[in-house]
Every structure is written in C-alpha cells, then in structure tokens.
Design the sequence.
C-alpha cells in the first residue's frame, strides 16, 4: 500500500528543517497534515528560529484543528503529540510521524500506524529520493535528533546500507 498522507509532529519537522532535509516531505507525501498545536509549537512567534521561518514559507502543510481523543488524552502526552495521534486515530490509514517514545507507545497501544523521522529516511531511499540514509542520519543527529546507535544500525539495514562499516558516534 502506497503511503501518501501523514500527520506530523513538531520534532520531526524541526529536525528535518534544521538538517536541510524538509524538502523530502512533499516529495514523499501528497498530503502533510500539521495540527494547529504542532504549528504553534514550531512557529510560536519566534522569527529567529530557522525551522519556524521555513515552515511558515511552505505551501504543503495542511493545517487542521484537532479535537483530542479521550483515548489519547489518557496518556497525558504533550499538546502536539496528542493532536497528531488524535488526528491519525480519527483518519486511518493516515500515518503519524512522531519520535517521542511515550507517544509511540500510545500509538502502538491504540493501533495507530507511525513513522519515526529515521523511518522517513528509509522510505525516501526506497523511493529513490536519497542516496545514503547514513549521511541523512548524520545530518539529523547534527540537527539535534537523538537516535541510538542500535536504531541507526536497524535503519541502515532496512535501507540496504552496510551498517557494519559505519561509525555514527
């Protein structure tokens, strides 16, 4: 099944913009939903933040107001995570793009399909949009996204890259 629509959280947006890789999003997906709570978190009137400035300039975000599902609210997540998961829960088969571990646990429990930012890179490589997931991961890490070495190795294997000859520490 082709994945052509996602709802995305603040952390993936910020790290993709900071790493210079946000252009992958509209190449990967026809529809990219950004809940109002996430929009506020990213752009919150701080014009000095490059990701905030760049997100405001894009034509691809579909801004949506979201009613938080009581099933998601029970997890006491942040406003952005709650909005992303509530939107995905109400609009299957939309995938949620989220990195927060508690939010990922919530999604798994509620049966919400998710991607992490690293998973987006693997998808981009599979669709011929990236030459190297390893290089893209290095950019994400430099932009502030924490990825364990174990997860990096898994992503490299999924991308068909030689993980054993790569050191990302």
Sequence:
């Amino acid at each position: 099944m082709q994945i052509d629509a996602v709802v995305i959280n603040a952390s993936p947006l910020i790290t993709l913009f900071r790493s210079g890789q946000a252009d992958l999003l509209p190449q990967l997906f026809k529809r990219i939903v950004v809940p109002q709570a996430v929009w506020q978190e990213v752009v919150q009137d701080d014009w000095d933040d490059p990701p905030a400035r760049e997100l405001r300039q894009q034509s691809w975000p579909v801004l949506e107001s979201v009613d938080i599902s009581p099933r998601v609210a029970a997890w006491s997540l942040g406003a952005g995570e709650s909005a992303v998961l509530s939107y995905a829960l109400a609009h299957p088969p939309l995938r949620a793009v989220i990195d927060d571990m508690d939010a990922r646990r919530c999604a798994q429990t509620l049966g919400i399909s998710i991607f992490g930012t690293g998973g987006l890179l693997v998808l981009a490589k599979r669709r011929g949009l990236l030459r190297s997931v390893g290089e893209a991961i290095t950019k994400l890490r430099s932009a502030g996204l924490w990825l364990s070495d174990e997860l990096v190795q898994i992503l490299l294997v999924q991308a068909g890259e030689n993980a054993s000859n790569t050191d990302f520490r």
